[in-house]
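Example S7 (structure tokens).
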């Protein structure tokens, strides 16, 4: 059976996404359906997914996607390198749907050199503004606005392994393993300029693994709604519920997202300092 935009809209509506909502969605186009069906669709179905989200939330809503880039500086190899960040031209490294989104003339993109997001819809320009002025997941960033604007988080064919909002919790709690890195951006003269990136999510995380401890916590909490769209399993939850859940869990188990000693050299380096940071009350106030 062919997969249509209307099928996707019906699935999103069944999850509870509606007119006027704000949503950040992570995606894996390959999970939507067989390749022999997807190749018949524009951008192999990416446009159908994007249009379904836009039509579901309507002109008063907002749709955002992560558009992370391979722009870490070679002098600070804390992530993928090789490109210079230009919000107008640098491709996303997180999937074909996000690059189809970037190709749209009405999209707005934040100016963070490694962890930008793009948005279409009401308040899109406000949503992406000032990302380059704070830490990677700062309260003034689009990630912070997801919390303040009561946005949804959607996982279209993906799962908690792609949940960048967990890095927002790490940032806001000041967890010590969040790094200061370097990235390359296009300067005023068109030449690469190296800039500082604060609270960057370098290194290993246990939650990047399938069936991680964080995934089990999320499943037990029951805050994610699930449905099937084509071959894709699609989940939806509120950003605020996600962040508050993991904030509380990290107060009990500071290495929940990072991982424990003996699991990875990065955990060996940071586990004790992370436990001390949280148990000594330096994690700040729960939002």
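Recovered sequence:
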């Amino acid at each position: 059976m062919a997969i249509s935009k209307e099928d996707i809209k019906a699935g999103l509506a069944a999850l509870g996404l509606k007119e006027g909502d704000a949503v950040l969605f992570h995606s894996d186009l390959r999970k939507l359906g067989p390749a022999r069906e997807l190749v018949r669709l524009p951008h192999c179905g990416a446009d159908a997914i994007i249009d379904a989200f836009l039509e579901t939330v309507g002109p008063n809503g907002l749709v955002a996607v992560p558009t992370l880039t391979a722009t870490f500086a070679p002098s600070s190899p804390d992530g993928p390198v090789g490109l210079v960040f230009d919000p107008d031209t640098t491709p996303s490294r997180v999937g074909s749907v996000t690059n189809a989104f970037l190709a749209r003339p009405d999209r707005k993109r934040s100016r963070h050199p490694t962890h930008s997001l793009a948005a279409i819809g009401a308040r899109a320009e406000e949503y992406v503004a000032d990302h380059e002025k704070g830490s990677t997941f700062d309260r003034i960033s689009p990630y912070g606005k997801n919390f303040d604007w009561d946005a949804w988080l959607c996982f279209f064919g993906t799962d908690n392994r792609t949940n960048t909002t967990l890095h927002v919790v790490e940032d806001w709690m000041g967890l010590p393993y969040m790094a200061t890195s370097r990235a390359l951006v296009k300067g005023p003269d068109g030449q690469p300029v190296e800039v500082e990136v604060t609270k960057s999510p370098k290194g290993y995380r246990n939650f990047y693994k399938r069936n991680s401890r964080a995934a089990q916590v999320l499943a037990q909490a029951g805050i994610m709604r699930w449905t099937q769209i084509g071959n894709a399993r699609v989940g939806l939850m509120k950003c605020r519920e996600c962040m508050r859940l993991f904030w509380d869990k990290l107060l009990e188990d500071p290495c929940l997202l990072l991982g424990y000693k003996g699991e990875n050299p990065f955990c060996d380096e940071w586990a004790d300092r992370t436990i001390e940071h949280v148990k000594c009350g330096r994690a700040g106030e729960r939002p």
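Notes on this example. The two ends are 45 Å apart (CA to CA).
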